C-alpha cells in the first residue's frame, strides 16, 4: 500500500481508448498514482502479470465480454488484486448487482469527472474492509 493508504498500482481496463487515456491522466498525472492500462481481456491479463495491481478499475462491458468475468480471472491469479471498482453506464439493479461482486469497493457511472476521479478512487479504496 502506498502513502496515505493509496493503492500501489492501479490497472484500468476499458475498451474505449479515449476513456482509458482520460482515466490514465486523471489517476496518474493528476492523481499521482501508478497506473497501467488495458483494452481487452488478453491485455488485462498481460498487464496484471507485469504490474501486480492491487486495484483494478474495470469497465462492465469489454467488446462483448463481461467485465465481471475478466475481473474473476484477474482475481484468481497470484497475487490477486485486492479490490475492483467497476465502470458502467447502467443504473439501478445492475449497479447493485455489481456491488455484490467479491472485492468490489464501488461502482462509478460513466462518464465520470476526470478532475475528481483520483479522489473518488482513493475514497473507495480506503473504504474496503
From TrEMBL:
GO terms for molecular function: phosphorelay response regulator activity; transcription cis-regulatory region binding. Pfam families: Response_reg. The keyword DNA-binding applies. GO terms for biological process: regulation of DNA-templated transcription. GO terms for cellular component: cytosol; protein-DNA complex. The modification 4-aspartylphosphate is found at residue 59. This is Response regulator.
